[in-house]
Amino acid sequence: MRLLRMAVAGLVLGLPVLAGCGASDPAPAASTAAPAPASPAATAGTFPVTVQAGNGAVTVAARPSRVVSLSPSATEMLFAVGAGPQVVAVDDQSTFPAEAPKTDLSGYKPNAEAIIATKPDLVVLANDTGGIVAALGKVGVPVLLEPAAVKLDDSYDQMTDLGAATGNTAKAQEAVTAMRQRIDTLTAAAPKDKKLTFYHELDSTPYSVTSTTFIGQIYGLFGLVNIADEAPDPAGGYPKLSGEFVVKADPDLVFLADTKCCGQNKETLAKRPGWGGLSAIAKDQVVLLDDDIASRWGPRVADLIETVGAAVAKAAA
């Protein structure tokens, strides 16, 4: 199995790689600050445009026609903002949408020569691994570094950035507005008066997430109480919990983000020592998530929120 699972949006540097789980973006670089809003020129959709990304002010001289994405989240965003026809190559972990031109390019170990061979006029990355931004800059390739989001506004800002940089400003604004409205509707409709507890599992080790992370904040939209917030060692928001800790907390809801990678479900949980008596198992409140959707910060975050909302409504009924 691949050593991934750095993969939840906002994962900090220094966390050990979690074994065995699904495809997602590389861990972010040291800077995870939200990108600044696009410049007035970018907002107008004209070229050249200058976009404020994680690597500073990036000027794109003309509307790009050969975009390369080495970030699964960015790939999803590019297609959502209407730049799909401009994308000529995506990394080996970009599994959505199906029409994305997937290659063997890696966002984890980017190879400058291989990227340059695709003749890109814009490259989008989530992490500056091995000095790849500088390497591409030496040959005049514009690079947008769009690191892991730490809050929903980061996702909206990055979609706006990508729309501006690709000449799809209006479509990006429409996509962001639709995403905001859908999320607002879903969270407004969900019951929040009952303080339900939950456990989110990244892998069966088990690693989890606290409320300070991007995914943890998603659950916070529903007023859920995160058992991982009481972990002895928060580990930068991604604590490794003991089985005994989870059993003692006995969460009302269990969300599994290791279904595709690690084959986890209600039945496998019940076989773990002591876990068979969990309330979430007895009440059929173990929720199977799509690993990829649960580890990215693109437009499908709204799908994740819909899944969480439905589970909360069922548990609160």
UniProtKB/TrEMBL annotation:
Alphabetical list of PROSITE patterns matching this protein: FE_B12_PBP (PS50983), PROKAR_LIPOPROTEIN (PS51257)
Signal peptide per UniProt: 1-19
Coiled coil: none
Protein keywords: Signal
GO biological process, one term: cellular response to iron ion
Domain (Fe/B12 periplasmic-binding) ranges: 66-316
InterPro entries in the cross-refs: ABC_Transporter_SBP, ABC_transptr_periplasmic_BD, Vit_B12_bind_prot
Gene3D superfamilies, per the entry: Nitrogenase molybdenum iron protein domain
Keyword Metal-binding in record: no
Domain of life: Bacteria
Membership in a protein family: Belongs to the bacterial solute-binding protein 8 family.
Name under which the protein is recorded: Iron complex transport system substrate-binding protein
Species the sequence originates in: Sphaerisporangium rubeum
Taxonomic lineage: Bacteria, Bacillati, Actinomycetota, Actinomycetes, Streptosporangiales
